[in-house]
Specification:
This protein is an all-alpha fold. 80% of the residues lie in helices and 0% in strands. The protein has 4 helices and no strands. Helix 1 runs antiparallel to helix 2. The longest helix has 36 residues. It is elongated, with a radius of gyration of 20 Å. The N terminus is likely disordered.
């Protein structure tokens, strides 16, 4: 009987983590686009379009949540590989162990994610204000 044991390295986990960061970035880009279209539907009073966009937005949020949960699982595994008992952080635990080029790539991705997250939050606040001021009750 053959037993196969797969042992993942820090580098293996980093490849997976980077792929998840790209998925999160793209998901947030899509969410920003949906939220922008939501604003148009709110401003024109298009209830059918708004309902469709709400479903699309909920689906995208679920996808992003799955990606973020997967990132947390990979960070835990990285912690095990590195022998870190505390919560793994990018700045203290990961970036110092990377070569300069991948470290810059990860940093740019994370900065882009934070920027997009802020943009989506701002769009949502604006949409909420527009919705509350809409006499049709959207």
């Amino acid at each position: 009987m053959n037993t196969y044991t797969t042992s993942y390295t820090f580098q293996d986990f980093m490849v997976s983590l980077e792929e998840l960061l790209v998925k999160q970035f793209r998901g947030l880009q899509s969410l920003a686009q949906i939220t922008t279209r939501e604003r148009l539907a709110l401003s024109t009073g298009d209830a059918n379009r708004l309902a469709s966009l709400t479903r699309e937005k909920e689906s995208m949020l679920e996808q992003i949540e799955i990606v973020v949960d997967s990132q947390h699982m990979i960070l835990e595994e990285i912690g095990k590989v590195l022998g870190i008992r505390k919560k793994v952080t990018f700045s203290e635990d990961i970036l110092p162990r990377l070569e300069p080029v991948p470290a810059r790539r990860i940093t740019r991705l994370r900065n882009g994610i934070m920027t997009l997250d802020d943009e989506v939050c701002d769009l949502n606040r604006g949409n909420q204000a527009l919705s509350q001021s809409n006499p049709q009750g959207f």
